[in-house]
Amino acid sequence: MFNRILDRLEEVLIASFMAAATLVTFAAVVMRYVGGTGISWAQELTIYLFIWMAKFGAAYGVRTGIHIGVDFVVNAARPSVKRVLVILSMLLGVVFTGTIAFFGARWVIFIYGTGQTSPDLEWPMWIIYLAIPFGSGLMCYRFIQALALFVKTGQLHSHAALGEQGEESGS
């Protein structure tokens, strides 16, 4: 149940960030060419929305098996070696994303203490930087899920089976 809610939230956030960035950019262009004035904060907001979208999109990529990977060596290996390589790579993914989430949270706490705000929007920068621990933490969780699935079943997430898998398992 938790994973289904998290999956849906992840998808809604990614789509919302993408839609908002598109709408803001479109409005800024229309305002510039039709109204003669642009929207001064549009570029900054679009950049922040794309950062948030990318962080959550990376976690989505791990969950669905579409995240970038170099599997030439893994696919060429014997089954016993392949299993070790897959587990090792997922463990490295867990360690890396967990480390980024941890230090990202420390960075957010530091930035909060400085009181910095963004140049155009004048939003607190710590809110913008929350993308780092939230996105990396979710990505770490997705690596743990994928690792648990692989250890239990020997299967990897596959985007080809996403329609079936996402509804059946609530991964």
Automatic annotation (TrEMBL):
What's the subunit arrangement here?
The complex comprises the extracytoplasmic solute receptor protein and the two transmembrane proteins.
User: Which purpose does this protein serve, as stated in its record?
Assistant: Part of the tripartite ATP-independent periplasmic (TRAP) transport system.
Q: Which UniProt keywords apply?
A: Cell inner membrane, Cell membrane, Membrane, Transmembrane, Transmembrane helix, Transport
The family this protein is said to belong to = Belongs to the TRAP transporter small permease family.
* Family matches, as Pfam families: DctQ (PF04290)
Q: Where is the Tripartite ATP-independent periplasmic transporters DctQ component domain?
A: 22-149
An example Gene Ontology CC term for this record: plasma membrane
Topological category with respect to the lipid bilayer: Multi-pass membrane protein
Organism name: Sideroxyarcus emersonii
What GO terms describe the biological role, i.e. biological process, of this protein?
Answer: C4-dicarboxylate transport
Q: Which PANTHER family match?
A: 2,3-DIKETO-L-GULONATE TRAP TRANSPORTER SMALL PERMEASE PROTEIN YIAM
Q: Which domain of life is it from?
A: Bacteria
Question: Under which name does UniProt file this protein?
Answer: TRAP transporter small permease protein
